[in-house]
Design goal:
Elements (H helix, E strand, L loop, with lengths): L1 H27 L4 H6 L9 E7 L2 E8 L7 E5 L10 H4 L2 H6 L1 E5 L16 H11 L8 E6 L2 H6 L7 E5 L15 H4 L9 H17 L13 E6 L8 H7 L7 E6 L6 H4 L1 H10 L3
């Protein structure tokens, strides 16, 4: 009887793990165009989703650009991430009334993307500069989240402002989560969903790539606002404290979010929204 009970328990645990894996794979997979637009069914302003091309590589961009007199928020997602990360911001009626907004999928994170991540902050910066090339730079505010932080910060062109959200900007405090081993080990790599393989590649190369930039962050001509959760362990708060030391006080503002983790763009939406609105003026 005990053996039968144990077999049933182990079978249920196995089925539960399979269910969790399938749910994780489905939930984190890049969304189709139709699924992306579902987030805007109740939005006052309807965004336009377009397919764009940079250096022979296709990517998606979503935009609400209705008034050229308004500033433009350009969101850059992290690792792992997509244009879907910022749907709550782009669909917010108050933000819509105060700003134009753009978000885009970085290469390797598009829906059904056949291309791999570039593993290069320099490439990502060039792509971002391409996306904003036709905009009035005096009205452009770059918003970089996580890995998107160094991408936005590496733009040397003068824009209105750069806002960093939990930016991963210093190699010495760049953690390597144990879960990366599932990608590193050939025996378990097949279990890793494609988009997570791309994220793993980018994460593994990020520490070395940062060394090409981290001593020159202060060379940006732009004012920088850095918003970071004090309990963030994925991209430690130390990143922002070290960044603060590189800048003169009149160029850099560090905004602490007490007890917030790395998911602050979702968990602290109201706070981030108010900071964005504050910096539109």
């Amino acid at each position: 009887m005990l053996k039968k009970i144990l077999k049933v328990i182990f079978a249920l645990i196995f089925l539960l793990l399979i269910g969790v894996y399938i749910a994780f794979r489905t939930f984190t997979a890049p969304k189709s165009d139709a699924d992306i637009l579902k987030a805007y069914t109740k939005s006052v302003e309807k965004p336009i989703l377009t397919k764009e091309r940079f250096e022979g590589l296709d990517f998606r961009k979503i935009a609400i650009q209705k008034d050229t007199t308004l500033p433009t928020l350009v969101f850059v997602h992290g690792t792992i991430g997509s244009i879907n990360d910022f749907s709550k911001y782009l669909s917010d009626s108050v933000l819509q009334s105060k700003a134009n907004m753009i978000a885009y999928d970085r290469i390797g994170y598009n829906y059904d993307d056949k291309n791999s991540v570039r593993e290069s902050i320099a490439f990502e910066r060039n792509m971002l500069e391409y996306i904003i090339k036709d905009l009035d730079k005096n009205k452009v505010i770059l918003v970089g989240y996580s890995y998107g932080g160094p991408i936005a910060l590496s733009v040397k062109e003068k824009v209105r402002k750069i806002i960093l959200l939990a930016p991963a900007v210093h190699s010495s405090v760049e953690p390597m989560p144990w879960m990366l081993n599932f990608y590193k080990w050939s025996l378990t790599r097949w279990l890793v969903p494609k988009v997570w393989k791309e994220a793993s590649k980018e994460k593994l190369s990020h520490r070395e790539d940062l060394k090409n930039f981290e001593q020159t962050w202060q060379e940006t001509p732009n004012k920088v606002v850095d918003i970071h959760g004090t309990t963030d362990w994925i991209v430690p708060y130390e990143n922002s404290k070290m960044l603060e030391e590189q800048f003169p006080k009149d160029q850099f503002e560090l905004v602490d979010v007490p007890n917030a983790g790395h998911g602050l763009v979702w968990s602290n939406f109201g706070f981030i929204k108010e900071e964005l609105l504050k910096n539109l003026h």
